[in-house]
Amino acid sequence: MAAVNKVLESEDKVDITPMIDIVFLLLVYFMFLPLQQEADVGIKLPSATPPAENLKLPSEHVIEIFPNGLILLNGAPMDSSDDRVMARLSTTLTRLRMSSDRVGDDIVVKIQADPDSPHQRSIDALNACAKADITKVSFSAYAL
User: Fold this and answer.
1) pTM higher than 0.85
2) Which has the closest alpha carbon to 105: 55, 50, 63?
3) pLDDT-based confidence at 11, cuts 50/70/90?
4) What DSSP letter does each residue of the chain carry, written as one string?
5) Checking CA distances to 127, which of 39, 53, 78, 143 falls within 20 to 30 Å?
6) How far, rounded to the nearest angstrom, does the alpha carbon of residue 125 sit from its chain's CA centroid?
7) What's the CA dihedral at 101, 78, 125, 60 to 10 degrees?
8) 123: exposed, middle or buried (C-beta count within 10 Å: 0-12, 13-18, 19+)?
């Protein structure tokens, strides 16, 4: 009977020292974790600065190209659909660029070509922009 009591006594005793050590280590770890995260993140709060008053936006002009070859600049028809030189478009773009240069603005030309339009008309529009010395040209999706 003594042997059974001795076995039961040894099973009843649980050494909780390692568990307490682990709890204290976890406590210390989770106490310093937020400090480390805050130190790593460089947050700069916005200051009360007034907005820029002289915000210069570039003057944007739209060239639309239709399936029949018709080209519109800002809604106005330009050269005929079979004209490859496009003198009127080049002249108008040159005047618009010179006007923007006088004011000190940049000029941006956006080409909107219909998916069914001839690709050569887009090249003709790009050539007209090059003749007018306009370097900021972009293509955009055609608005149906």
Assistant:
1) no
2) 55
3) low
4) -HHHHHHHHHHH----HHHHHHHHHHHHHHHHHHHHHHHH----PPP--PPPS--PPPEEEEEEE-TTS-EEETTEE-S-TT-SS-HHHHHHHHHHHHHHHHHT--EEEEEEE-TTS-HHHHHHHHHHHHHTT---EEEEPPP-
5) 143
6) 27
7) 40
8) exposed
